[in-house]
Write a structure and sequence with these properties.
The complex is a heterodimer of chains A (552) and B (181).
Chain A lengths: L8 E6 L2 E6 L4 H7 L23 E7 L10 E2 L2 E2 L1 E3 L4 E2 L10 E3 L3 H16 L15 H9 L17 E2 L4 E3 L9 H9 L5 E4 L6 E4 L11 H6 L5 E3 L12 E6 L8 E7 L2 E7 L31 E2 L2 E2 L2 H12 L4 E4 L6 H14 L2 E3 L20 H6 L12 H8 L5 E5 L10 H4 L3 E6 L4 H5 L2 E4 L8 E4 L4 E5 L12 H9 L6 H8 L16 E2 L25
Parallel strand pairs in A: 1-8, 19-20, 19-21, 21-22, 22-23
Antiparallel strand pairs in A: 1-2, 3-6, 3-7, 3-8, 4-5, 9-10, 10-13, 11-12, 14-15, 15-16, 17-18, 17-23, 24-25, 25-26
Helix pairs in contact in A: 2-3, 7-12
Chain B lengths: L12 H5 L1 H16 L22 E3 L14 H5 L5 E7 L11 E9 L8 H5 L5 E3 L14 E2 L1 H8 L8 H13 L4
Classes of the chains: A alpha+beta (552), B alpha+beta (181).
Chain lengths: 552, 181
């Protein structure tokens, strides 16, 4: 395993050229880092080594030593290399000083050709209907390392096709190359060992244990790691070929774990969401629940235009009406942990200038200990860091409702929250001037005086701070509804601020964000020092890469 | 400069009657009258389309009436003017060709964009799309110049298929399921 904290380097020799690689690293990873591809199917850097596909066979050797004297045996002035008589699998080899590797020798090429030919013996020729085509390792390596024709003349094995493994995963047994990645993932990462192999020889088949289903919330990761098209997503099945899809880096907003994701879209339509590797947050995994969030983009109740008193209005007119409504007297703001850092800062400035009280509702659920945390919002830490609030999130808005009833609040701005679900009924909201910034219509938008359309996380860009105090950015994957401005621009307009300057203002005024620009973050994000907020009680329990700070 | 007078030759009798010239002209007319015609009375008469002519792209069925396209979208990918637009879909469990699993839900070729290059036919792994001998395609609106799936199969018809790839696969699976492996 490669560790980040300064690994000691050793020298290995690859096809006659010396390279420096981290000591003890897995040979496949180490060679990958220096740009040498070792084809492999069963090996996965985040899973235990199984060594069953044999595709990564290489020739290994080391300098010979005299048995009597332990001196290096020299040949023509160079140490003589003792090559192992048979090839070995790179995935089960850790690098050590002086290791010699042959990747391009005729023997290694013959091994790869042989393994590829054998894997293709019973593989169906159904790439035209296979969803994996385009991102299929078997397809790629067959083209790269295969011999290009088959000598097999017998009939191929017929195995079950289109088998339901669980609510979200479909299995095509004919395509399976029995690499056991999915089996290892289910038992080691998801801790739900429901997959296994039955029967022997060419009848060997992947299946679920009797009476069980692959129905845990991480089942779709088996689809991601399947090197062939055996496990496919039932939702994405036959929807679009992957080579048409544009990849956009994003963040999973279902919880404060902040799993890194890739959004796959074509011509403004999102087709799927997959995890993006970030070893500090989510390795290469994400929860199934986060992959369905894109369906809210095309929901029938999307807010597509501004309304004033439930009448369609231009954005300009609605913003003017909002300005009037927000200046009606004592202002209360319901902010959200679903807002990005930039939007929260702009809202904080609005709150400060209007001397408004700020409420951040809590959304708490059950954590699963992996990548879905107890806090079901992506960015409560952002509300703390940007100064939008300094309190723990409120469980409901009953206190605000009481203030409205008592006449202490004259106008309300609600951003990205359904206040009616949080104890602020529409009848109470009707008593004050109200402005709502929302992505979807709900009881609150129906009762609000001014409704401003907002964009989903897939339609705007920004950054979130996850439970580890890691600042991570997300990019716009698809355009929003016509004429809808990003939330940050709307809030900047209400606050009388410049949305483009928000990061220079943040890095100048917030010590934790000094020198940072959320638009220029590295792909893996930036770890902030959350020590300033150590006194806060956060709901998160242990996660895949997060352990709560023990509070006394 | 001195002026040189050229003596004009007097016309002969034959020349003075004009008859040889008229007869020579009539011969040309006559030769063309009796020569086989090189033009066609289009549109009443239609030309014979040579083999391998690249006409309007069409979708074809196999001799069993099964639609051959499995909506792999390679033609959509390769199409230089982006004339092809496919909506992939799944074949229902009850259909006779359910063993193929995948078929286009909709298949559109925009003939205002098509450049008749034939790459779609070349790339098709299922031999489902062919540029056949239909060469005259007109329409009064832009919409009518977009051939949808129904129109494409109407134009394409049925072509002989020596492979029967999916049917053979199905037969083999049934044979093995029957214990004749």
């Amino acid at each position: 395993m490669v560790t980040d904290n300064k690994p000691s380097l050793v020298t290995i020799n690859v096809d006659g050229v010396e390279h420096q690689v981290p000591a003890g690293a897995n040979l496949v990873d180490a060679l990958g880092k220096i740009g040498k591809e070792v084809p492999h199917y069963c090996y996965h850097p985040k899973l235990p080594v199984a060594g069953n596909c044999r595709m990564c066979l290489v020739e290994l050797g080391s300098p010979m030593r005299d048995r009597a004297t332990n001196e290096l045996v020299m040949e023509n002035g160079l140490p003589k290399i003792g090559w192992q008589p048979k090839p070995a699998i790179a995935c089960a080899t850790n690098v050590s000083a002086g290791l010699h590797v042959r990747l391009e020798s005729p023997g290694v090429k013959a091994c790869r050709e042989g393994v590829t030919e054998m894997l293709l013996l019973n593989h169906p020729l159904d790439c035209p209907i296979c969803d994996q085509a385009g991102e299929c390792k078997l397809q790629e390596f067959s083209a790269e390392y295969g011999r290009g024709y088959s000598r097999y003349v017998d009939e191929k094995n017929a195995k079950p096709k289109k088998t339901r493994l669980g609510p979200r995963v479909t299995l095509d047994d004919e395509r399976c190359i029995l690499c056991s990645r999915c089996v290892r993932f289910s038992s080691e990462i998801a801790k739900d060992p429901v997959l296994g192999f039955v029967n022997r020889g060419s009848y060997n088949t992947l299946t679920c244990f009797p009476g069980r289903e692959l129905d845990n919330n991480y089942s779709l990761n088996t689809v991601d790691i399947c090197p062939v098209g055996a496990l496919t997503s039932t939702d994405f099945r036959f929807k679009m070929r992957v080579w048409f899809l544009k990849q956009t880096p994003s963040i999973d907003t279902e919880s404060s774990a902040g799993a890194n994701t890739t959004v796959w879209s074509r011509e403004g339509k999102i087709y799927r969401i997959t995890p993006r590797q970030n070893d500090a947050v989510n390795d290469t995994w994400m929860a199934d629940s986060g992959r369905e969030l894109f369906k809210s983009v095309d929901a029938p109740n999307r807010v597509t235009h501004a309304t004033v008193k439930n009448e369609k209005a231009t954005l300009e007119a609605a913003l003017a009406a909002a300005d009037v409504a927000l200046s009606a007297g004592a202002l209360a703001i319901v902010g959200s942990s679903h807002m990005s850092v930039e939007e929260q800062r702009l809202l904080a400035r609005l709150a400060k200038s209007k001397n408004a009280s700020v409420y951040i509702p809590a959304h708490v659920g059950k954590g699963d200990g992996l990548l879905v945390s107890e806090d079901r919002t992506p960015n409560f830490r952002g509300a703390l860091v940007t100064g939008l609030t300094d309190r723990a999130p409120v469980a409901d808005l009953k206190a605000l409702a009481a203030d409205i009833d008592a006449g202490k609040v004259k106008s309300v701005l609600i951003v990205r929250e359904d206040a009616a679900m949080l104890g602020l009924p529409a009848s109470t909201l009707a008593k004050v001037r109200s402005v709502v910034l929302a992505t979807h219509h709900n009881v609150t938008t129906a009762a609000a005086e001014v409704v401003l359309p907002a964009l989903t996380v897939f339609e705007r860009s920004g950054s979130f701070i996850n439970c580890q105090f890691r600042l991570q950015s997300f990019a716009q994957a698809v355009p929003g509804p016509t004429g809808v401005l990003p939330d940050a621009l709307v809030l900047a307009r209400l606050a009388g601020a410049d949305a483009a300057a928000v990061w220079s203002e943040l890095s100048a005024n917030i010590p934790m964000l000094a020198g940072l620009d959320g638009r220029l973050l590295p792909a893996e994000g930036v770890q902030l020092d959350g020590a300033a907020f150590a006194a806060h009680k956060f709901p998160e329990g242990k996660l895949l890469k997060f352990a709560p700070v023990a509070t006394a | 400069m001195a002026i040189k007078v050229v003596e004009r030759r007097p016309l002969t009798l034959a020349e003075r009657t004009y008859l040889p010239q008229i007869l020579a002209g009539l011969k040309v007319t006559w030769d063309n009258m009796v020569r086989p015609s090189v033009t066609l009375q289009y549109p009443e008469e239609r030309p014979t389309i040579p083999k391998n002519y690249r006409g309007v792209p069409t979708l074809v069925m196999d001799p069993n009436g099964r639609e051959k396209c499995v909506s792999c979208q390679l033609c959509e990918f390769v199409c230089p003017p982006k004339a092809i637009r496919i909506t992939p879909g799944e074949i229902s469990e009850n259909a006779t060709n359910a063993h193929v699993e995948k078929a286009p839900k909709e298949f559109e070729i925009n003939m205002l964009r098509c450049i008749y290059c034939g790459l779609c036919q070349e790339v098709c792994p299922e031999e489902a799309i062919f540029l056949q001998n239909q060469y005259s395609l007109t329409g009064l609106t832009r919409e009518s110049m977009v051939n949808n799936k129904v129109k494409l199969y109407e134009l394409g018809g049925t072509l002989p298929d020596g492979h029967h790839k999916w049917d053979k696969k199905k037969e083999e699976a049934e044979k093995q399921a029957g214990g004749q492996h």
